[in-house]
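#random but structural
TW: two for the price of one
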Amino acid sequence: MKTPKQLLGEIEKLQQKADELEKLESKNSHIIEMLRDSKREKNAILDTMFECILMLNEDLVILWGNDALARHFGIRSEQLQGIHCYSLFNGLNQPCKNCAALKALDTGEIIQVKDQSFLGKRWSVRHYPMKGEKKLLQVCTDITHQKEAEEALQEEQRQKDAIFINLRQSEEKYKMLFEDSRDSILIITTEGKVIEANQACLDLFGIMREDLDHLNFWDFVFIPKTKDKFVRDMEQTKSVVEYPVRMKKNDGKEIDCLLTASVKYVHDGSILGYQGIIRDITEKKKLEKEVLEISDRERCEMGQDLHDCLGQFLTGIALKSKSLSQTLGGKSLPEAREAQRITDLVNEAISQTRQLIKGFAPAGLEAEGIVTALEELAVTTSNNYGIPCDVFSNLPGMDFDCVTATQLYRIAQEATNNAAKHGKASGISITLDKVDSGAVLSIKDDGIGFSFGNSPHGGQGLNVMAYRARMIDAALCIQKNKERGMTVTCKMLNGNPDP
């Protein structure tokens, strides 16, 4: 039998154990509460995530799903429990073929399906097997917009690739056209450094390709006065088409060219230089000049033939008819009067023939100079159209060679005829003056204006006048006057045209 002391000792031990148990119970309660708080916090975190998260067991039954998943399917979170994932996502009554969830459960490895479709969207689905448990955490991320962006980027890249291929093909075609072109093509900076030049350009000016880096194209090719005017015109218009310009080759020989050029810009909008095509028209111009000279010579010969043949023949008829009239007794008999009428008609024909001869071969052009020829043109115009036509000039005597004088006369002739016939002018003035830079011929009228396109020749008169001007290195300008009529101006600048 235990003594009271022993009993008290046991009671004390029991009390100690009871205190320890109470402490353990309190500690366990605290731990359980912490776990509950941790679970609530975990659930709260999972529910606030945009990704769809669910827990599956080994049978692929949903044990838990967050609010994002429930929202996508339009149900409450608690309604997700007990549903098979393949039924929820795909409407099937059995697992999908090659099911990634089962594979993750079997292998214990994380499995990701990068592009899966359900709910009309595209998802990236990751399967996380739980260690030591036959459970699986499945995370679904909506990648619809990401895929659309990726596909848009891929489409954009495909378009860029197509553009780059076209650019490469275009570049190859450009190089082929550039190098094989018979016209001279070049690109230069504003300082005159050659950026690019094709073989035709090198051949035209007699330049070796290795010499391009060491020469200034402005100084090498352009005549100074021509270069300054070209730059001014390019700064104003930014481009020119068939711009007449005189250039020089490596051997110093000057050539006549037509230049079609435009300003070349860099990416920031500043001017890099000029790009253009140069066409040598020296031989063409020489040939055209020869053709024009032949044409004018033939006109002169035709005029001479009219004078020597038809003129003499008509003069003979006039003399015969006048003699017949006198033989018949003057004007007393009807036959005599008829003979006199024939005489008058023949004299009129002689007068008109002389006017034609003057048109074909202007008298005094070679003997007395162009001013005299223009004065005769003015008289003829006044007689033919019944309008005053005056000539003003400060050029005494013959100041031009025969070819130049002839072309100036023909320009004046065409302009006065158009002013009288199409412009219905009541007065015409022809001016030929010498100025510091050369000579200027102008024909001004006070008519209603005229268009060469409305003439019977469909604009041929304008083309011929411009053609004649080019043949003598002159520039033709036709413009309306401020009040009435038109002014045709032909400028010669010391042998160089002024386009």
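TW: number two ↓
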Amino acid sequence: MNGCAGTGDDDRQRAYIVEFRPVLIAGPIGPGSGGEPAGSEGAGQLATDFEALDCTQPAQGTALVDAGPGSSVVACGTERGERFGLGPAEIDGSMVESVAVARGILHDGAESDDYVVSIELNADGTAAFASMTERLRGLDAPRNRLAVLAGQEVLSAPTVQVAITEGEIAIAGQFSEKEARDIAAALSDNGG
């Protein structure tokens, strides 16, 4: 996995936790171009950390994202070259019922070269995810986005347009089979 946590093989091997967090701030990968997260506990420190985070410098992100699930964090994104200020984790591996990895399917029905991680949440996870997506869908950008944080990188941060109540989630990206299996293993190892 590439991003501000590093790009070497050692970084790809390290274990990480997968969490779903609300996006409070989003901006370009370089420092100094962010905004203030309104109505967020610890917003001042989060904004300061966000402004200092430079995702163009791979080693820098590590010190700014080592926090527990109840804390706000900053992290670099792999999907579109963004950096993020994120609220506390609302969904984690302990709420996962099952995880599967498969090749993605293209619009024409053919298999993609990329892999998808399919997640089925347990009852607590389904309720938490429904509540989270219901709340986020009514907010202004960027606070209407949901980040999938794996270790120290945001894998995906889609805009929430509708509440998702079924408890089934697909994480799609340009994942190799190994990367997708690493994500699935992280979800499974954390209670899934």
